[in-house]
């Protein structure tokens, strides 16, 4: 799993593969700069660890210093005009890091802000808003942290750490003439006892075979509201499994979905298409 340090190193190399020719030709090596991170619009902050890493790595790359880096914590809610952080150091390093730091802060704060809106929309229902594996390749760890900063929760991290039997798995089982309940029970015997088992269904009549296998989570995918409520009732009557709703969830629909009694609502758009937040780094010559 790529860490913030890994992501930043790749981004800095991409942005200045042979150095920053402008700053190196124009600015003395010992010129200093003072910059403030300013919010141009309200939101929730995320990506501060990556931003710190960008400035630290850029200072090392340019042979300069980083005297001060103050940043508000991930999860901080802010208004337009708020100063969220300050960095002071050698100008070449500050300017080398600027775009990489802002790209990550703006994108990840967009994820956190988008998530916070979904969390607010389900307030009082008891349902958790969770993300999916629809993450930007290489940025999963950072985007998942941003979801948490926005008040959301994480689904399984990868294909390796939980069982999620989806519609395509079930289709293969049925095409092979296998019994779904027996197959799911064999999964329970094959994986460690700490491994959660979740099964996706897209019709109410699939629940009997799944619940008979004593799974941990039942995902009701693309259900109408009335069918969601009925699915919750059936699962609660026969099982201790958690109930997850998924499929095309929007800010306009998530509240009603959560009100059906589901435990979890998975939302691909948290990480798939959040709007980048407008943050700026205002730089001046340091005194």
UniProtKB/TrEMBL annotation:
First-tier enzyme category under EC: transferase
Reactions mediated catalytically: nicotinate beta-D-ribonucleotide + CO2 + diphosphate = quinolinate + 5-phospho-alpha-D-ribose 1-diphosphate + 2 H(+)
EC id: 2.4.2.19
GO biological process, one term: NAD+ biosynthetic process
CDD domains assigned: QPRTase (cd01572)
Signal peptide: none
The entry's keywords: Glycosyltransferase, Pyridine nucleotide biosynthesis, Transferase
Domain spans labelled Quinolinate phosphoribosyl transferase N-terminal: 20-109
Sequence ranges assigned to domain Quinolinate phosphoribosyl transferase C-terminal in this UniProt record: 111-282
InterPro entries: Aldolase_TIM, NadC, NadC/ModD, Nicotinate_pribotase-like_C, Quinolinate_PRibosylTase_N_sf, Quinolinate_PRibosylTrfase_C, Quinolinate_PRibosylTrfase_N
Keyword Transferase (UniProt): yes
Pathway it works in: Cofactor biosynthesis; NAD(+) biosynthesis; nicotinate D-ribonucleotide from quinolinate: step 1/1
Gene3D superfamilies, A to Z: Aldolase class I (3.20.20.70), Quinolinate phosphoribosyl transferase, N-terminal domain (3.90.1170.20)
Gene Ontology annotations for the cellular component aspect, listed alphabetically: cytoplasm
Family named by the database record: Belongs to the NadC/ModD family.
Reported function: Involved in the catabolism of quinolinic acid (QA).
Name of the protein in its database record: Nicotinate-nucleotide pyrophosphorylase [carboxylating]
Organism placement in taxonomy: Bacteria, Bacillati, Actinomycetota, Actinomycetes, Kineosporiales
């Amino acid at each position: 799993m790529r860490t913030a340090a890994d992501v930043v190193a790749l981004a800095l190399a991409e942005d200045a593969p042979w150095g920053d020719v402008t700053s190196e030709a124009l600015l003395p090596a010992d010129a200093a700069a003072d910059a403030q991170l300013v919010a141009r619009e309200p939101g929730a902050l995320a990506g501060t660890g990556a931003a710190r890493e960008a400035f630290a790595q850029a200072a090392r790359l340019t042979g300069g210093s980083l005297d001060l880096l103050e940043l508000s914590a991930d999860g901080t809610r802010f208004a337009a005009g708020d100063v969220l952080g300050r960095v002071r150091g050698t100008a070449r390093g500050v300017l080398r890091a600027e775009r990489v730091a802002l790209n990550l802060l703006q994108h990840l704060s967009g994820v956190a802000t988008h998530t916070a809106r979904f969390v607010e929309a389900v307030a009082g229902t008891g349902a958790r808003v969770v993300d999916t594996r629809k993450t930007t390749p290489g940025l999963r760890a950072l985007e998942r942290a941003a979801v948490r900063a926005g008040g959301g929760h994480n689904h399984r991290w990868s294909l390796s750490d939980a069982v999620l039997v989806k519609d395509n798995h079930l289709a293969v089982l049925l095409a092979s003439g296998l019994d779904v309940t027996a197959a799911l029970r064999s999964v329970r015997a094959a994986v460690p006892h700490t491994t959660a088992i979740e099964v996706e269904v897209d019709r109410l009549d699939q629940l009997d075979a799944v619940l008979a296998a004593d799974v941990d989570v039942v995902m009701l995918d693309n259900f109408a509201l009335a069918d969601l409520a009925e699915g919750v009732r059936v699962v609660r009557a026969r099982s201790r499994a958690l109930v997850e709703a998924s499929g095309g969830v929007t800010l306009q629909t998530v509240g009603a979905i959560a009100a059906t009694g589901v435990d979890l609502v998975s939302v691909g758009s948290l990480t798939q298409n959040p709007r980048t937040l407008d943050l700026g780094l205002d730089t001046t010559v340091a005194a």
